[in-house]
Amino acid sequence: MAPERRLNPTFGMLTSFPPTPCGLATFSAGLANGLSTNGSDVGVIRVADGAEPTSKAVIGEFVNTSSASVSASIELLNQRDVAVIQHDYDVFGAEILDVVEDLRVPTIVVAHKVLKHPTPQQRSAMETLVAKADRVVVMSRAANERLCADYAVDPGKVVTIQRGATLPTVAPLKRSGRPTLLTWGLMGPGKGVERVIDAMGGLKDLRGQPRYLVAGATHPNVLAAEGEAYRESCVERARAAGVATAVSFDSIYRSTASLSALIQTSAAVVLPYDSTDQANSGVLVDALAAGRPVVATAFPHAVELLGSGAGIVVDHDDPEALATALRRMLTDPRMTGDMAAEARRLAPSMGWPVAATAYLALARRVVADRAAMV
């Protein structure tokens, strides 16, 4: 391998990718752009979803159920210096194991979900991926500890790289009008929106008439299985609680720039998730990267990132604590100012330049390690 290639390895990335409307696609686009900015050539094999690719970085498409597509994707990845597999159980079936098995180039698997209670099939798939890959990247200490403690894997292969985010390019806005509590992301059961709707009734006495905005389209899998039942149930819950005028829903799937602008208008971001196991939250990282204070239920990634003072963590089964936290966010400007300042302090370390540099350094290491074995 030529020295310049070792300095700037070429990447093949297998993943969901825009225009697919999901967090994994947005993450992969950010990483691909960050690597390209660092001087690496990135070719993306995009998981097909019926939409036409919109990026010149896309060099192929992957169809889970097609053996011909699997073979073609393997060949494309093998033409690169390093293969990066963005793994999520919602995206890949068992075919992903065939891909990793037949790769001849150094392979980095990015584990977007490390489940606390996996099915036997999910556990086996993760353990096989770690065994076959040169390195596996997780995005939090909680995910690292869980993978190394609860799965039969080689801890020496597991690397933590903080999830990347797009940093704001404009100064924080001076917010005016009704203060907004914001939850965003693909909608579906487990989002915990009901918790905040229930709490809004106790905030009616506040001056300024605070509102709760839930932004984001319904998750495609939820939409296919249940339609808009979850969103409609939340709308009805707000009506029944007498807070319909204080709760609004925006079903647009926003671009990165549009979402960044929306986040900047919020008084605080609320992550009221049902999950007690979530070790990776892109929404949380994006909120902190935007310099916004956060109220979250006590899922592991929130406990980890908000511990230095950028937000408030409340127990899942403590509605009074949630209501108190929201009230403080809306009535204590000194506290929220301190939290926003801490979020802004953390933000630079969460930008894509930092994450992409870490991935590039890791790629150089796995290429060098593989070369040393020859």
Defining traits:
Rossmann fold, single chain, 2 domains, disordered N terminus, six-stranded parallel beta sheet, seven-stranded parallel beta sheet, Glyco_trans_1
* Overall average pLDDT: 93
What is the helix fraction of residues, given as a range?
Answer: 40-55%
- Return Rg in Å: 21 Å
Oligomeric nature of the chains: single chain
InterPro entries: Glyco_trans_1, Glyco_trans_4-like_N
Protein name: Glycosyltransferase
Organism: Mycolicibacterium hodleri
Keywords: Glycosyltransferase, Transferase
In brief, what are we looking at here?
Helix 7 links the parallel strand 8 and strand 9. With 374 residues, the protein is α/β, with parallel strands linked by helices.
Structure description:
It is a single chain. This protein has 374 residues and is α/β, with parallel strands linked by helices. The chain folds into two domains: 3-164 and 351-373, Glycogen Phosphorylase B (Rossmann fold, 3-Layer(aba) Sandwich); 180-349, Rossmann fold, CATH 3.40.50. It has helices at residues 3-7, 23-37, 67-78, 95-101, 120-132, 141-150, 193-200, 220-226, 229-240, 256-264, 282-289, 300-305, 319-331, 333-346, 352-373, and strands at 11-15, 42-47, 58-62, 82-87, 107-111, 135-138, 158-160, 180-184, 211-215, 247-250, 268-271, 294-297, 311-314. Helix 7 (193-200) packs across helix 13 (319-331). The protein is globular and about 70 Å long. The N and C termini lie close together (12 Å). Residues 1-5 have low confidence and may be disordered.
